[in-house]
Every structure is written in C-alpha cells, then in structure tokens.
Write a structure and sequence with these properties.
Layout lengths: L6 E7 L2 E6 L5 H8 L12 E4 L2 E5 L4 H17 L2
Antiparallel strand pairs: 1-2, 2-4, 3-4
C-alpha cells in the first residue's frame, strides 16, 4: 500500500518516523495530505518536511506508533 502511495521507504531514526517519498509523490502533495494536523497524536510542530521526506516524532507507545504509520500510508494512498 505504501509503495502504491508513492512512499519509497519508512524507517525509525533517532525517535522519528521517517517517510521518504518516491518520484511519484511530491513534497507539496505530502504537505497538503499530512500537514493539516489530523494525524493521530501528532501536532503540526511534530513534523518536519524536507525535499523528499517527512520526519515525525514517534509516539512512545509501539501501538500508537503503528497506528500513526498506518494513518500516514492511508492518507497518502487516498490521494492516488
């Protein structure tokens, strides 16, 4: 599902969830889809966008982190 949404990789680095975009997903599109503050447990200040990725502070709970990952992929996939 993530690949179909334009995500090239998802990883956890230094307490951050890092979602890297492939060529099919632009930074502007990702910002529009993810930057509105509607992700579970994420404030807009918890996100940092770069040219080909977004970094989001990971919730402490593994279950909440998985829920966040699923919500991100679902949002990106809904745009395709």
């Amino acid at each position: 599902m993530a690949e179909g949404a334009g995500v090239s990789s998802i990883s956890r680095e230094d307490g951050l969830l890092v979602v890297r975009f492939g060529a099919a997903l632009s930074r502007a599109t990702a910002m529009n889809l993810l930057g509105d503050g509607g992700l579970p447990g994420v404030r807009p200040t918890d996100m940092t966008f770069a040219s080909n990725q977004v970094r989001i502070r990971v919730p402490a709970s593994p279950a909440r982190a998985w829920e966040l990952t699923q919500a991100i992929v679902a949002r990106l996939a809904a745009a395709h």
